[in-house]
Structures are given as structure tokens and as C-alpha cells.
From TrEMBL:
Keyword check for Transport: no
Similarity section: Belongs to the 'phage' integrase family.
Entry protein name: Tyrosine recombinase XerC
Example GO BP: DNA recombination
Gene3D superfamilies per the UniProt record, alphabetical: 1.10.150.130, Intergrase catalytic core
Length: 400
């Protein structure tokens, strides 16, 4: 039995019940008096568990993204249709969904880790952009309506938007923290990417981005890197934390520079000993998917838990999510008398600034942190230079 999902558009998502209990998803395409079907090889499963519901929701999201792509292709004459009236009604929301789905398809095919990471990032950012665009002016805006005022309005909206809007949509929770200046800048760039492409595709005759003044565009700010001094690290070492695993993982990261995702993924089998008896780890960096080799200092090893009878495949640090850890961190940091806003990622900043302040060459620090570009590491060098300048300025007036 076919179940129809109502839509006024020429392409509809339908599902057909299969003998095994699953449902096959397909597109019902009706144009120029002809009806065709495209079976997507996507299936819905009986919703017996919460996991089943999540799986079905993700599958339907992909099916609707494919539908959006087909609509844009239809309206853009890519299937040989010549209905220019349809072409003029392409929705901004559908067009961005099409681009996002293209990146998703690339993600499935791409084997090179470094490219895969960039493709995945773009796909995720476009999906986040769609959520904000829907919150701003709905999802019915057609590309021809995207003018200078629409874009300026979206930029103004970003100034008061919440940075965890996706949680409001997907989890029903609320977040009071607003978007940072750099996040606003990023969303503008993502929207600009799609508008520029629409202009190249001939879907709009005027590029509204060219009508903006430099002052209209959100500026990117140089990131401020919070970090701990060696005295603050010592204070944490001497302060009890209600969750010992959090203390161990954070201090280990302070002396290795590993990201939370990589610390959490470490297994005992990742640790090795070289010919000189020193410890190193071989691991795949989750952010870049690159294989890394990192020497581990004796100071870092101090904060590792006892292995006991754990096998090579077992995790070293049995920690929860980043969010839960940050809550425990805040209480621990306050107990140590530290007033800085400390998240787990501050451990990575701390490692970089400690190494640079100890005279380690910036090129070496960059390699230890696994940075793909040295300019990322140079941000920490500027922090050290600023501290040196402030230290020297304290001498001003000392003999007056």
C-alpha cells in the first residue's frame, strides 16, 4: 500500500510497504503530463525503539534532500524540461538543500581523509545554515526574493540568534548563549557560497552580494585563546576533583595537547615504547583523520590511570561527553581558585603556550599539535608575545 506525503510540488516523496515489514522510499515525479518514479534505495524500518525512530528521521531527511535536489534540477532544465516558470520559482531553502546533499554524496564516496573532513564540515555547516534561515524568514523564500535587504536582515538576525539552535530543533532544549562574531561571519560565508553558485547557475540575474557595503558584512575576529599558566596547572594538580577521570584526562591533555575527541578515543593499544624506553602514541586524529605519532612526556604519564588487566582495545580514559566533563571542570577550577572560563579545549591551548614559553620552536609545536598550517600555531605565539610586552611594561615608572 502506498502512503502519500502531501505536497504541491511536482515531486512527491512516497513510501511503499514491503513484505519484510520495511517501507521503500521513492519519488513520484509528475511534469509535462507525464509521471515517472525514482526509487531511492532508502528504507524505513518499523519503529520499535528510539534508535529506529532516529534512523527513520535521518533517512527521511536524506530523502527530502534528494527531492529538493531533483526539484532544483527540474527547474534548472537539467532533466531536459523547458518550463521557465518553474525555474523562476526555485526556493532558496531547496537550493541549499541540493548543495548540501551533493556534499553528502561526496562524503560517501571520498576516501582521502583530509578531503573527507572538509566535505563533512561543509555539509554540516550548510545544514546548520538552513536551520537559521528557516528561523529567520521561513523556508518558502524563492531565490529571486533574496536581495540586499534579505541578506542584511539575516546578518541582523545572526546578532541575536542562539549558538545551539540545532538543539532547539532536534532536542527540544534551549540555549541562552549567542553566536560569536566568528560564527556569524561563518554563516554569512556559507550563505554567500550558495548565492554565488545560484548566480553562476543562472537562477538569479543579479548577485545581491555585490550590493553590500564592507560595513554590512560580519567581520572575523582574531580568536582569543584562553589558557592556564604553569602555576594554575599546579593548583589543579593539588586540588581534588569529584570526578577523578576528568582530572586525569584534562591534565594528560595539558601535557600532550590532544583534543578531547582524541583523548576519549585513546586505547591502551595506542601506547608504545621506543628503543630508548620512552613512551609514544600512534593514533588517528579524528578531526583531520590523519595518522599521527606523538611522544608522551613523563609528566603526562603521571596522570594516566592504572591499566590493570585492561586489554589493548579498551579505552584509557573512561570519560563521558564533552558537555558533562566541562560541568565537572568548572567546579574543579573554581575549587582551585581559578577564575578563568575553562573548558576541556583549554588544555590544548595550555600545552601550546607552555611549550612556546619554554622556548620550543614554533615549527615543532605546530607538529606536536598536529596543525596542518603553521599560521594556526602562530596565534599562540602572539599570546606569548603579548605576555612578554605586558611583563616589560610593568617596569614603567619603577624609578619615578
Amino acid at each position: 500500500m502506498k502512503t502519500q506525503v502531501k505536497s504541491k510540488e511536482p515531486i512527491k516523496v512516497r513510501v511503499k510497504k514491503l513484505a519484510n515489514g520495511n517501507s521503500s522510499i521513492y519519488l513520484d515525479i509528475y511534469t509535462d503530463g507525464k509521471r515517472t518514479y525514482e526509487f531511492l534505495k532508502l528504507y524505513l524500518v518499523p519503529e520499535k525503539t528510539k534508535s529506529d525512530k532516529t534512523t527513520n528521521a535521518n533517512t527521511l531527511q536524506l530523502a527530502n534532500a534528494i527531492k529538493a535536489k531533483r526539484i532544483v534540477e527540474l527547474q534548472n532544465n537539467e532533466h531536459g524540461f523547458s518550463n521557465t516558470a518553474l525555474k523562476s520559482k526555485v526556493k532558496l531553502f531547496d537550493y541549499i538543500q541540493k548543495i548540501s546533499e551533493e556534499y553528502f554524496q561526496k562524503l560517501l564516496k571520498e576516501k582521502q581523509p583530509s578531503i573527507n573532513g572538509k566535505v563533512k564540515g561543509t555539509h554540516q555547516k550548510l545544514n546548520a545554515l538552513l536551520r537559521h534561515l528557516k528561523q529567520y524568514a521561513g523556508d518558502k523564500i524563492i531565490l529571486k526574493q533574496v536581495d540586499k535587504e534579505y541578506i542584511k536582515g539575516f546578518i541582523a538576525y545572526l546578532k541575536t540568534a542562539k549558538n545551539s539552535l540545532y538543539r532547539e530543533y532536534e532536542r527540544g532544549t534551549n540555549c541562552s548563549k549567542y553566536l560569536s562574531q566568528n560564527t556569524q561571519h561563518g554563516y554569512y560565508l556559507d550563505l554567500a557560497l550558495c548565492i554565488n553558485r545560484a548566480y553562476r547557475d543562472g537562477l538569479i540575474s543579479v548577485n545581491p552580494l555585490r550590493q553590500l557595503q564592507p560595513g554590512d558584512i560580519p567581520k572575523k575576529q582574531e580568536g582569543v585563546r584562553e589558557y592556564l599558566t604553569i602555576d594554575e596547572v599546579k593548583a589543579l594538580v593539588n586540588t581534588e576533583c569529584v570526578r577523578s577521570t576528568v582530572k586525569q584526562a584534562f591534565l594528560f591533555a595539558c601535557f600532550t595537547g590532544l583534543r578531547f575527541s582524541d583523548v576519549k578515543a585513546l586505547t591502551w593499544g595506542d601506547f608504545h615504547t621506543d628503543n630508548e624506553g620512552d613512551t609514544f602514541i600512534q593514533y588517528r586524529q579524528l578531526k583531520t583523520q590523519k595518522q599521527e605519532y606523538l611522544q608522551v612526556s613523563k609528566e603526562a604519564i603521571k596522570f594516566m590511570p592504572e591499566r590493570g588487566e585492561a586489554s589493548d582495545n579498551e579505552k584509557v580514559f573512561l570519560v563521558a561527553t564533552n558537555g558533562h566533563i566541562n560541568l565537572a571542570l568548572k567546579a574543579w577550577v573554581m575549587s582551585a581558585g581559578i577564575t578563568k572560563n575553562v573548558t576541556f579545549h583549554v588544555s590544548r591551548h595550555t600545552n601550546a603556550t607552555l611549550l612556546l614559553s619554554l622556548g620550543v620552536p614554533i615549527e615543532t609545536v605546530s607538529k606536536l599539535l598536529g596543525h596542518s598550517e603553521i599560521k594556526t600555531t602562530q596565534i599562540y605565539a602572539k599570546v606569548i608575545d603579548k605576555n612578554k610586552k605586558e611583563a616589560v611594561n610593568k617596569l614603567n615608572g619603577i624609578t619615578d
